[in-house]
Amino acid sequence: MTENSPITYDQSVVLGTETPLALDSGASLSNINMAYCTYGTLNEDKSNAILVCHALTGDQYAASRQPVTGKSGWWDLMIGPGKILDTSKYFIVCSNVLGGCMGTTGPKDNNPETGTPFGLDFPIITIADMVRAQAMLQDYLGIESWFSVIGGSMGGMQVLQWASAYPERVFSAIPIACAARHSAQNIAFHEVGRQAVMADPNWQGGDYYSRETKPTAGLAVARMAAHVTYLSEAALHRKFGRNLQDRDNLTYGFDADFQVESYLRYQGINFVDRFDANSYLYITRAMDYFDLAQDHGGSLAKAFDGTKTRFCVVSFSSDWLFPTAENRDVVHALIAAAANVSFVEVETDKGHDAFLLDTPELFKTVQGFLKSSAKSRGLDE
Amino acid sequence: MNAQGKYVPKRDIRVDWQLIAEMIEPGSRVLDVGCDDGQLLAHLTETKNVDGRGIELSQHGVNICVANGLSVVQGNADTDLVYYPDDGFDYAILSQTLQATYQPHVVMEQLLRVGRRAIVSFPNFAYWRCRYYLGVKGRMPMTNTLDIAWYESPNIHFCTLRDFTALCEEMSIKIEQSVIVGASGKVMTRSNYGPLANLFGSECIFMLSKET
After folding, report:
1. Does the interface predicted TM-score (ipTM) exceed 0.85?
2. Disulfide-capable partner of B41 in A147, A329, B52, B99 (CB 3.0 to 4.6 Å)?
3. pLDDT digits (tens, 9 = 90+) for B82-132
């Protein structure tokens, strides 16, 4: 941490105290706790702020130590002094999404009406609701328009929603490895995950917060299944092949004989320490419901009609969760809306998770795009 | 041929760019179809202050463009122009790419739909050196501007200057301006598109518009 790139951990603000947040479901939420971190310094005319949107199981600790796991931030490679999202130039904001479990109001928090955790009484939220809550944070921070909104996967969905719902508040948008709607296959995988959670006897209809045992087994299975979708066949083969885990021979049992099994179990077990099972249900649901074209009479181009926002869409060749074709649909809609758009498909075998990994082609693309955006915003050094 | 397999003349292509740049009004909206690594777009942005966009087939080219701050999407001239709205650009440029498209006439139609004007440049297959290769040597031409062996060439639809003007007439496309480049990269002074130009012109640059 250098002097010109201060980090503020664990910020939080209560939003919607006067006007509650009206949700897509028809319900509303007031007194929303919004947890966020910032990196870097907001300039005088507040024109250098970048909103980083996190993915399904991400959090606001994009470039700082995650308090539960003690691990470094999920986008440490991207954010920092001299890095792509350069904290000596930009003011980076990352907030925990609505419905999350790292400080922003979600199902594990107390329902003010009952004084006990919401559980399944928490209203169903959508990607648009998450973005509405972030817009309240933007107002609170006094930032008129983000210099850029960036995110991968569900973060990319939020980027698209931001650009569509608040075009005048988004100067540039970088949706990475995402889609304008969740595919049937992706909904199917999410349903498998949710059923795993709900089949866990400790889930108790979502009312497990006062109990000692949590639905960790179900949540771990959900995470294991989902994790496979974040990788690629090639990446799994490269990493593990059919290698055995700490043994020379098959055990003729159901232990984790294979390294890939051991790895997935590890992913599952670690996940449950930092994530709330109900949050997982709510956030996966929000992704399932996302369909930007549907919200605009079936025309995705209409979602971006007349936009002045500059776009940079990035996909990964081996991503089968949000394949290039779906990213390309977004690009075609943006082209039809006469938007200023760049699109790069990065060649990689790392699968969907490539946006979190050391992917030089991604870095170069985002860096070049931000540089030219900074120039046209008058942010040049 | 460059690394992406796209046709690029061996000699300094900036002569072409210079000529294309001269045709373009400053501050206009430009789409460069098949923009390669974006050098023409960058040149036009710099010298003509255009609002430039590009389409490029090769990932390598696109990545260079975007990393350099150009607004370029990965796409195909044959299939992806349909996504662009009508008259979204003042100029749609197709520089040294026509002969590599599957359906040149459809591409030209699309260029004139998305652009108020189209600028198309291509190598003239009736250039005397080409004729010499075919007529005397009996071989496919290998010249300064066509330096790729037939089996490696991405060029699948060669045409001559006269073929091109005939197609324009057939498609009711108006030729607003033509520049014919002769040997050694010099613009032919009597730069109409008659029989002499068809014999001595190695490259052609046309500015086209829809017949109204």
Report:
1. yes
2. B52
3. 999 999 999 999 999 999 999 999 999 999 999 999 999 999 999 999 999
Catalytic option among A59, A257, A288, A319: A319
Q: Which domains does chain B have, with CATH numbers?
A: 14-210 (3.40.50.150)
Task: Inspect the interface and report whether the beta carbons of A342 and B70 lie closer than 8 Å.
Answer: yes
Contact A335 B72 (CB under 8 A): no
CB B16 within 8 Å of CB B205:
yes
- The CATH label, of 3.30.1320.10, 1.10.1740.10, 3.50.50.60, 1.10.1740.110, for the domain at A186-285 is 1.10.1740.110
Q: Is A226 exposed, middle or buried (0-12, 13-18, 19+ CB in 10 A)?
A: buried
Report, at the CATH architecture level, how domain A7-182+290-377 is classified: 3-Layer(aba) Sandwich (3.40)
Q: Which of B67, B75, B80 sits opposite A368 (nearest CB)?
A: B67
CB contact under 8 A, B71 and A310: yes
Q: How confident is residue A277, by pLDDT bands cut at 50, 70 and 90? A: very high
Q: Which of A153, A164, A315, A373 is catalytic?
A: A153
Task: Determine the residue of chain A that is closest to B68 in CA distance.
Answer: A368
Rounded average pLDDT over B44-58: 94
Mutation to test the A interface, candidates B33, B35, B66, most A Cβ within 10 Å: B66
Backbone angles phi, psi at B4, to 5 degrees: -90, 5
Q: Which residue has the higher pLDDT, B33 or B14?
A: B33
Query: Which residue has tokens 């005048």?
Result: A168
